[in-house]
Amino acid sequence: MEIVPAIYILGEQCVALYKGSLEQKEIYNKSPLEYAAEFVSQGATKILIVDLDKSEFGTNLNLEIVKELRRETDAHLILAGGIRSMDAIARAFAMGMNQVCLGVSAEPVYVESIKKYGADKIIVGIKAKGDEVLTDQKLDFPLKVIDFAEKLPSFGVTQVLYKDVWKEGTEIHPNYDEIDRILRMTPLRVYASGGIGTKKHLKTLKEIGVKGAVIGRALYDENLYVKESLMEFSATHEAERSAQ
After folding, report:
1. Domains in the chain, please, with CATH?
2. How far apart, in whole angstroms, are the C-alpha atoms of residue 70 and residue 5?
3. Residues 133-150: pLDDT tens digits?
């Protein structure tokens, strides 16, 4: 299982949201670049960058910070936040991002983006409240996570990032049931986000079979550490230990 630190940027600062609310957030003193350097020094090879200003307000306030993270960080970077068009995807890759995470509203470009860049470069983010997808699309009925997930392979999608905002920033536990449902009912590889706060949570996610655990607040609050999490739950590190 991959351990993926998440750097959420709002107003050029590193933040952790509580249940997806911009009003209920914790602002951290270290800069996004400082956190990235810290995570890499502990062994992180992949980092998720979430530009909240871009996703929530459509602004480029954090653009220079994102560029600096690419210049100064050797890690594999995934960019999320407000990427809804082919032009936005192209700009992300032009900045040197390794992957992009597209939200539900970017569905019209799933097929084209995968044809152009390959399925390994595109992750679809499913932001949800429990089993219901959060979307700004006007729908007659709530869109269930599993219904949305089941149609993604037809677009060529192979990997998703599921985040339950009801769990976000709580560190109480992820939404195991919905994650397990996606894994059992689709061929998708799943990154899990929201509610991760302890080694027990990571152990359970690994047992379920997720591709990666995306961790934010627990790392900032030092309830979890990248190095220890990698040593205990990363398949790469387990293979290295077995070979010794």
Report:
1. 2-243 (3.20.20.70)
2. 15
3. 998 766 667 899 999 999
